[in-house]
């Protein structure tokens, strides 16, 4: 994150002033330091940019955020950067390499001054018009006043300034950890050393090996320090004494590794299911068990640019992977535990290993491409670790391989895992990117050991018409490849090596289902009207022009949700107005005059943008996402609304605002829309609506009605918020059911308030659930927006309904105890319905 915290003007008395950048591991510390410095300026303007922390509570530094802070603070007088400790210096040096304008780099001075005292005097000097060299000198000398005050009295012993920090301090500790100085205790040691102003060397006295720098995890690992080995610590510098004492104390505490933690835990691929398997995406799949396999990166086919450009690619990829690992670490700590989350510390230490990165940079400077330079360096480190004498320490070479592979794939864009032969995919869990890249010619169905029916990956699978069963349990991962798998994604049934009789039964079911789909598709162009004459629009959820073509072919009445974030993800800069207008127009044209609803950008901590710094949040679903994020970046929102307004002058368009919690957010969004529309005003026929995803918004729907023409209920998020059950967490997957009466009461409240005033749609996964459709229609929902393949099936389901009976069913459902009872009640009604 980067932010300006001390005035917006870089000008003082008409002359350019030096800009300041504060780099700290702690956002709270940085803000407090800037506030203290601002008190000394007495209202004089000065640009001070902050790049601190990975989020409000997570310590760390980010080279990309520092680069952006330097760019914001830059001016004719240049920039002075003050840093707190350890990896802040490395991150800042990497940030300089990221700067695309070399002239900015020439105007930057990195100050070794203490952060607090240095910032205060630097701010005063800069605001007074001092030059960059003068500001840096003032910051460097910031401790003179304090040291003079605390110096010995006359006649006491004095120390020549030239002798300060030159004396070496030596100590020895014995390794007490059962598995020696392996990845986690080593990464703890390295991180502690990096936080001190001292040069520290370690040597294994027991083996007699050479000394290695204590700030490099790749070198510390080569000590091969086992339990009982004696390790010498040799330190020099201002904090040499503290460094030795601290490491000896830390070693006596086994580097804070618990007894249980002495056995390296395996990284969990997800939470254990408590009630699986669960149905997730309808359809029957039969085939041999297949797994995802990693496809090696082709090192010989990568283009090579200028050395500076290749090094920049490495820095950007390392920063991206580091952010990903930090995010996974936060989530793991929350959902599994701090001890298990600490397995990622070694990975993070490797990504900030100065010696290793220096080696990579040296390779690129000789003309070697980024991919080959990174792969070559990491291969050498991995070989060193793999050759260690202790088998347990040798296994930690896997950490090097894992980190190296992540960065390689970030450099090349290659997916980490891929399905290579036809069958049923069995895997712990899938990312949305992996799901989107599944080859439909190979995958007949998917079984997830973990996961939830409402996770993003499963939603994508449903949209691609892939049968899925989730929460099948960890034991399914031990089934050998090639075993016959039979699954029914509609019921959650899962069979391994089924009998010939069972296979024949399900093959007949699959044939019958295929025939039914063909009949439904033949009638899909006809409107969905219930038996008693009530029309229900069946629209499609889209994420591309290809989706729009599929929706039209499936008979969709329109597009109830266009996820515009498909334009913003997986790129280095936001799309401009012209590109957005072209894409929105192409989708509208593909829908051949049928109405489409464009949802404004819905991203956040769970769906981050590389070019939009976002905080790493402990729970991104409750953080800055949807309209909250868009209003914080109004230029981005305004550009999108300009493109939507242009498109709406030629096509039937509605605009929908996501993640709205208060009427004030809706009012602000409408203000931005009015600005975007320009002097011609809003296009004729442009409808403005909001998603109802937050329970509080559902409960106070009356307050929203003056500002909207329609609402669309996003049952996925509404369900997880109402039931406190994260939709991607397999351990609570069974709770996350939109037919829970608590969720239905929220929908009922919205429908009653909106009746006769505005339209109510549902665009969540419940809209395609054949047991939910009668309840939703009975509550008053008159538009269902589903994935394109589901349109014919949902239309057919609506045609079988009697709305009066559905209304009675819905009233009963509101009084039941749980989702299971509601589903049983619906099944009873459907079985008694006239055919």
TrEMBL record:
Top enzyme class: transferase
An example molecular function term from Gene Ontology annotations: phosphoenolpyruvate-glycerone phosphotransferase activity
Compartments in which it is found: Cytoplasm
Pfam families in the record: EIIA-man (PF03610), PEP-utilisers_N (PF05524), PEP-utilizers (PF00391), PEP-utilizers_C (PF02896), PTS-HPr (PF00381)
Catalysed transformations (reactions): dihydroxyacetone + phosphoenolpyruvate = dihydroxyacetone phosphate + pyruvate; L-histidyl-[protein] + phosphoenolpyruvate = N(pros)-phospho-L-histidyl-[protein] + pyruvate
Keywords: Cytoplasm, Kinase, Magnesium, Metal-binding, Phosphotransferase system, Pyruvate, Sugar transport, Transferase, Transport
Span of domain HPr: 168-258
PROSITE patterns, per the entry: PEP_ENZYMES_2, PTS_EIIA_TYPE_4, PTS_HPR_DOM, PTS_HPR_HIS
Domain PTS EIIA type-4: 17-169
EC number: 2.7.1.121, 2.7.3.9
Cellular component, GO annotation: cytoplasm; membrane
InterPro entries xrefs: DhaM_N (IPR012844), HPr-like (IPR000032), HPr-like_sf (IPR035895), PEP-util_enz_mobile_dom (IPR008279), PEP-utilizing_PTS_enzyme (IPR050499), PEP_util_C (IPR000121), PEP_util_CS (IPR023151), Phosphohistidine_dom_sf (IPR036637)
Cofactor annotation: Mg(2+)
Mitochondrion keyword on record: no
Function: General (non sugar-specific) component of the phosphoenolpyruvate-dependent sugar phosphotransferase system (sugar PTS). This major carbohydrate active-transport system catalyzes the phosphorylation of incoming sugar substrates concomitantly with their translocation across the cell membrane. The phosphoryl group from phosphoenolpyruvate (PEP) is transferred to the phosphoryl carrier protein HPr by enzyme I. Phospho-HPr then transfers it to the PTS EIIA domain.
Classification via NCBIfam families: dha_pts, PTS_HPr_family, PTS_I_fam
Family (UniProt): Belongs to the PEP-utilizing enzyme family.
Entry protein name: Phosphocarrier protein HPr
């Amino acid at each position: 994150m980067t932010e300006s915290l001390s005035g917006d003007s870089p000008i003082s008395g008409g002359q350019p002033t030096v800009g300041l950048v504060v780099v700290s591991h702690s956002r709270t510390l940085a803000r407090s330091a800037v506030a203290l410095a601002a008190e000394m300026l007495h209202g004089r303007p000065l640009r001070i940019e902050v790049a601190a922390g990975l989020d409000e509570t997570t310590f760390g530094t980010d080279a990309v955020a520092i680069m952006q802070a330097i760019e914001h603070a830059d001016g004719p007088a240049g920039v002075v950067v003050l840093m707190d400790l350890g990896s802040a210096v490395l991150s800042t040096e990497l940030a300089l390499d990221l700067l695309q304008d070399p002239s900015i780099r020439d105007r930057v001075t990195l100050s070794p001054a203490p952060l607090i005292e240095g910032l205060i005097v630097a701010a005063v000097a800069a605001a007074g018009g001092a030059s960059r060299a003068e500001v840096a000198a003032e910051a460097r000398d910031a401790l003179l006043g304090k040291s003079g005050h605390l110096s010995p009295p006359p006649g006491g012993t004095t120390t020549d300034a030239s002798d300060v920090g030159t004396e070496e301090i030596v100590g020895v500790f014995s390794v007490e950890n059962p598995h020696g100085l392996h990845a986690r205790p080593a990464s703890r040691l390295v991180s502690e050393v990096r936080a001190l102003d001292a040069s520290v060397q370690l040597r294994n006295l027991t083996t007699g090996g050479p000394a290695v720098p204590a700030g490099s995890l790749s070198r510390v690992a080569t000590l091969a320090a086992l339990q009982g080995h004696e390790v010498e610590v040799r330190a020099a510098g201002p904090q040499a004494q503290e460094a030795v004492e601290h490491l000896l104390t830390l070693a006596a505490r086994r580097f804070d590794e618990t007894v249980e933690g002495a056995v390296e835990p395996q990284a969990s691929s997800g939470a254990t299911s408590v009630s699986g398997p669960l149905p997730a995406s309808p359809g029957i799949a039969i085939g041999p068990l297949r797994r995802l396999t990693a496809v090696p990166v082709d090192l010989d086919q990568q283009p090579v640019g200028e050395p500076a450009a290749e090094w920049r690619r490495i820095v950007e990829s390392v920063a991206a992977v580091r952010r990903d690992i930090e995010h996974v670490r936060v989530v793991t700590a929350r959902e599994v535990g701090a001890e298990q989350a600490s397995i990622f510390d070694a990975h993070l230490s490797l990504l900030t290993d100065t010696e290793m990165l220096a080696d990579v940079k040296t390779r690129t400077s000789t003309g070697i491409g980024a991919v080959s330079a990174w792969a070559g360096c990491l291969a050498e480190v991995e070989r060193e670790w793999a050759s260690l004498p202790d088998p347990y320490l040798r296994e930690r070479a896997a950490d090097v391989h894992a980190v190296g592979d992540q960065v390689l794939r970030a450099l090349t864009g290659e997916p980490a895992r891929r399905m290579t032969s036809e069958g049923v995919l069995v895997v712990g869990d899938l990312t949305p990117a992996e799901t989107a890249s599944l080859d439909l010619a190979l995958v007949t169905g998917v079984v997830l050991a973990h996961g939830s029916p409402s996770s993003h990956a499963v939603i994508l699978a449903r949209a691609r018409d892939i049968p899925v069963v989730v929460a099948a349990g960890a034991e399914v991962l031990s089934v050998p490849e090639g075993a016959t798998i039979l699954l029914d994604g509609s019921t959650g049934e899962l069979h391994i090596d089924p009998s010939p009789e069972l296979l024949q039964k399900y093959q007949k079911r699959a044939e019958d289902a295929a025939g039914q789909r063909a009949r439904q598709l033949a009638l899909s162009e006809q409107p969905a009207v219930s038996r008693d004459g009530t029309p229900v629009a069946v629209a499609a959820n889209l994420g591309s022009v290809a989706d729009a073509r599929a929706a039209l072919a499936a008979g969709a009445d329109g597009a109830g949700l266009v996820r515009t974030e498909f334009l913003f993800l997986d790129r280095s800069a936001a799309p401009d107005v012209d590109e957005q207008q072209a894409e929105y127009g192409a989708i509208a044209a593909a829908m051949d005059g049928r109405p489409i609803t464009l949802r404004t950008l819905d991203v956040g901590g769970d769906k981050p943008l590389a070019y939009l710094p976002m905080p790493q949040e402990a729970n991104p679903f409750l953080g800055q996402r949807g309209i909250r994020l868009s209003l914080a970046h109004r230029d981005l929102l305004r550009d999108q609304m300009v493109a939507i307004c242009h498109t709406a002058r030629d096509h039937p368009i509605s605009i929908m605002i996501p993640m709205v919690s208060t009427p004030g957010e809706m009012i602000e969004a409408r203000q931005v829309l009015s600005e975007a529309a320009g002097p011609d005003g809003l296009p004729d026929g442009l409808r403005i609506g909001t998603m109802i995803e937050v329970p509080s918004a559902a409960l106070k729907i009356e307050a929203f009605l003056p500002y909207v023409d329609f609402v669309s209920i996003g049952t996925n998020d509404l369900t997880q918020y109402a039931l406190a059950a994260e939709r991607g967490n397999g351990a609570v997957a069974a709770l996350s059911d939109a037919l829970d009466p608590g969720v239905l009461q929220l929908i009922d409240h919205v429908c009653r308030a909106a009746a006769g005033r505005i339209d109510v749609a549902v665009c969540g996964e419940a809209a395609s659930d054949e047991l939910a459709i009668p309840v939703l229609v009975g509550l008053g929902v008159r538009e269902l927006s589903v994935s394109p393949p589901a349109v014919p099936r949902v239309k057919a389901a609506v045609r079988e309904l009697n709305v009066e009976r559905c209304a009675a069913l819905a009233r009963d459902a509101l009084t039941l105890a749980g989702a299971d009872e509601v589903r049983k009640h619906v099944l009873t009604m459907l079985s008694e319905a006239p055919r």
